[in-house]
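User: Good morning. I'm curious how S-adenosyl-L-homocysteine would be positioned relative to this chain. Could you predict the structure with it bound?
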Amino acid sequence: MSRSPDIPNAHAERRHAMVEHQLRRRGIQSQAVLEAMGTVPRHLFVPATAQHTAYDDSPLHIGQGQTISQPYMVARMTELLNVEAGSHVLEVGTGSGYQAAILAEIGAEVWTIERLPELAAMATSILRQLGYHKVHVVVGDGTLGLPEQAPYDGILVTAAAPSIPPSLTSQLGVGGRIVIPVGDRDIQELRVVKRTASGLTETSVLDCRFVPLIGAEGYKDT
Ligand code: SAH
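Assistant: Good morning! Here's the predicted structure, ligand included:
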């Protein structure tokens, strides 16, 4: 074999340590989430110059002024979304494509929307290379959701909204959940919206910090 095994092994070891120290020890319990985070090669979703920091306990820049969330935040949001194999999921804010890959690794079919075409193109390319064929990347304004594929079992928003976009609640199926950071541009709270047969309930889970959700039902400018 001409390929050196050292680099992939180093990443696999870092990924394993990330799962144990940053996720399991901090209370992530879902076996499906832990396994997905232990499988998806996060280093391939960040710029080459940042690969050695891909498994660190922090968000990372992915270009265009955007970031890939801290591993713990990805795991926590995925756990809160409560999806399983076969779930029909919408992600708003594709960014690097990493979160979409985690959802696909769990077995969900994922529609993910990104407003910046350059990021959507990069995410599409790496998701294809890695064989995540159940992820469909769409360029557009995700604050309006994607009504063609609704209703969704889960809607995950990975950018900070000033309020919960009504288009997203209207596309949520009964028994489904929206996980979304809501607040001002500096600090938000992560909220979980559930649709039951009798209506919507909303809970606030933790404080967080995301880049802004920009669109018709989000912030109006960059
Ligand atoms: N989930 C991503 C991280 C997303 S960062 C990952 O795993 O890497 C937030 C992303 O939301 C940015 O790429 C930003 O361009 C995008 N975004 C902001 N407003 C949006 C909107 N209205 N519709 C779709 N994408 C949006």
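Residues 9-208 form a domain with the Rossmann fold fold (CATH 3.40.50.150). The mean pLDDT is 95.
Let me know if you'd like a different ligand tried.
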